[in-house]
């Protein structure tokens, strides 16, 4: 690399990620002048301009993007050396930063986090809640080690490892017509009275695909309301009428008296595929396997089986 060192590569990647020298310096725990000097030195060594400083936020030049893409590979391969040593010694330790979507976080994390920590006490794990688009971007920038989200994504350079399959269920107000039907089929779903998560949430897209509705769905709801919370949407059904759809884990947490408002589809049931996803350059393989094992050990056993229904795509 013409004399570039690993530290310079890390600085280049940080500036590309955050688009500001000040923030990149904070994330690298150095002063802004130190980082700027090393970036400038790298550009002089390579005899190219990596960042266009005349723009705010800073833009990475076309040739700079190629350099930084390779820098990410070099950094990941270097980190892989430590992982190889850890695997050979059998030590289960290290740091994991995991992203998770909002429609999973409040229902899935309480199921397995305690189990994971008890079985892997030397692993420092943290979680960040983001919508899918933000998670994919963070994975590609190596800001996350992995993410738990709904697949298939069909993204280049992203590996999907299915963990379990949630039923997609109906939650209807007692006065809604769907509540009175014994055997529900997908073709019974309409926009009438349908409450949805706001745009950007993959479960909203799954509901629209399942119902074969357009994004600009019209409804006869008593008010226009957008929310990123399934619990809030469900409570709006309770107070204002209508119906919504819930993934299986969200329905599992309902109070006993609310279960009568949950309706299942006839078989084969619509399913939501939940996966652990990570970059192809991911190097913490052993920790990733432990995380997947912990999740699968703590979700309802029937959710491990895909053959009971069909996966609803969201893209």
Automatic annotation (TrEMBL):
It comes from the Bacteria. InterPro entries: LysR_HTH_N (IPR000847), LysR_subst-bd (IPR005119), WH-like_DNA-bd_sf (IPR036388), WH_DNA-bd_sf (IPR036390). Keywords: Activator, DNA-binding, Transcription, Transcription regulation. The keyword Nucleotide-binding does not apply. The keyword DNA-binding applies. Residues 4-61 form the HTH lysR-type domain. SUPFAM superfamilies: Periplasmic binding protein-like II (SSF53850), Winged helix' DNA-binding domain (SSF46785). Belongs to the LysR transcriptional regulatory family. This is LysR family transcriptional regulator. It comes from Carboxylicivirga mesophila. The lineage of its organism: Bacteria, Pseudomonadati, Bacteroidota, Bacteroidia, Marinilabiliales.
């Amino acid at each position: 690399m013409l004399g570039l060192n690993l530290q310079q590569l890390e600085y280049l990647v940080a500036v590309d990620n955050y688009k500001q020298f000040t923030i990149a310096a904070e994330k690298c725990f150095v002063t802004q002048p130190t980082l700027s000097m090393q970036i400038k030195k790298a550009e002089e060594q390579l005899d190219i301009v990596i960042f266009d400083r005349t723009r705010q936020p800073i833009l990475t030049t076309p040739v700079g993007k190629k350099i930084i893409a390779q820098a990410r590979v070099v950094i990941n391969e270097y980190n892989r050396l430590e992982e190889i040593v850890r695997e050979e010694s059998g030590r289960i330790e290290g740091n994991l930063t995991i992203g998770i979507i909002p429609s999973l976080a409040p229902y899935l994390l309480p199921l397995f986090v305690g189990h994971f920590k008890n079985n892997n006490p030397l692993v420092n794990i943290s979680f960040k809640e983001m919508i899918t688009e933000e998670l994919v971007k963070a994975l590609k920038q190596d800001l996350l080690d992995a993410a738990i989200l709904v697949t298939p994504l069909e993204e280049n350079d992203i590996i999907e490892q299915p963990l379990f399959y949630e039923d997609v269920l109906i939650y209807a107000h007692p006065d809604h017509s769907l509540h009175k039907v014994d055997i529900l089929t997908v073709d019974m779903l309409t926009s009438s009275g349908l409450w949805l998560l706001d745009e950007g949430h993959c479960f909203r897209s799954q509901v629209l695909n399942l119902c074969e509705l357009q994004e600009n769905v019209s409804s006869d709801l008593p008010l226009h309301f957008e929310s990123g919370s399934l619990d809030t949407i469900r409570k709006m059904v309770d107070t204002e009428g209508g119906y919504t759809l819930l993934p299986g884990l969200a329905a599992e947490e309902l109070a006993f008296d609310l279960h009568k408002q949950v309706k299942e589809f006839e078989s084969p049931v619509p399913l939501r595929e939940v996966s652990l996803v990570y970059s192809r350059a991911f190097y913490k393989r052993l920790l990733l396997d432990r995380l997947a094992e912990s999740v699968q050990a703590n979700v309802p056993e029937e959710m491990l089986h895909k053959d009971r229904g069909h996966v609803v795509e969201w893209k």
